[in-house]
Design goal:
This protein is of the alpha/beta class and 246 residues long. Helix content is 34%, strand content 24%. It folds into two domains: 159 residues, 3-Layer(aba) Sandwich (Molybdenum Cofactor Biosythetic Enzyme, Chain A), CATH 3.40.980; 73 residues, 2-Layer Sandwich (Alpha-Beta Plaits), CATH 3.30.70.
């Protein structure tokens, strides 16, 4: 996994059934751009305990941040907290800071149900909720938010600022326009550049409307110039005409 990449999990039967439209994905993409990050994968899942356990077992083995929205409430259909704990092989425990926040907000009305939202996978860190004070939580590099955007989005901003405050170098992209060469004839050149610069993203994007052409380019945080120079040299060596993208 490259630096500055993250995963996204959006949880909820109401999203998959079409009762609600997701707005988290676009917001996360835009938020990550501000710190020169990008999504490397995203997945929508139902409120299904076993499916969530399988997903978290896989993503907890990774080394990139994962942002998860939905399913952390106290109702029976909310099983995200439980699934994360099971996937990690830890117990659900009442986090003292979460207990304090919920009690401060609701008093005696926190019991017996609202307090269940303080039961988090052992080792979790809480994420403050500025709207109703019921916190989300972070576990390793997974960050769990409620499904409501009004709560979740300020909490996401808090996580990005407090856990990932150091801004990465921006991603630099260079590309050329290739008009009279099919994409299939560019594969070997792409492979050669990627072999020489394994941390660089080499991409091709066919444009089929109007004038047809292939956009061929590279993306990198540190060596985009060198990779792009080699890409152009290989195009010239193969006698493939190209134009610089404006």
């Amino acid at each position: 996994m490259n630096a500055g990449e993250a995963g996204l999990i959006i949880i909820g039967d109401e999203i998959l059934s079409g009762k609600h439209q997701d707005s988290h994905m676009r917001y996360v993409i835009d938020s990550l751009k501000k710190i020169s990050w990008q999504l490397s994968w995203a997945q929508f899942l139902s409120d299904d305990h076993d499916a969530l356990v399988q997903r978290f077992e896989l993503s907890l083995q990774g080394n990139c941040p994962v942002f998860c929205f939905g399913g952390i409430g106290a109702t029976p259909d909310d099983c995200t907290r439980q699934a994360c704990a099971q996937a990690a092989g830890v117990e659900l425990v009442r986090h003292p800071d979460a207990v304090a926040a919920i009690e401060a907000q609701f008093g005696q009305a926190a019991y017996p149900k609202r307090i269940l939202m303080s039961e988090l996978p052992a080792g979790s860190r809480i994420i403050p909720n500025p709207v109703n004070q019921v916190p989300g939580f972070s576990f390793v590099q997974h960050h769990f938010f409620p499904g409501f955007p009004s709560m979740a989005w300020p909490m996401l901003a808090w996580v990005l600022a407090h856990e990932y405050g150091a801004e990465l170098a921006p991603v630099i992209e260079y590309s050329v326009k290739i008009i009279n060469t099919p994409e299939s004839e560019l594969i070997e050149i792409m492979q050669a550049v990627n072999l020489h610069f394994p941390t660089v993203k080499v991409f091709s994007l066919p444009h089929l409307g109007g004038q047809r052409y292939v956009e061929l380019g590279v993306r990198s945080r540190d060596i985009a110039n060198e990779a792009f120079a080699e890409l152009c040299q290989r195009l010239d060596a193969a006698a493939i005409a190209w134009e610089t993208q404006v």
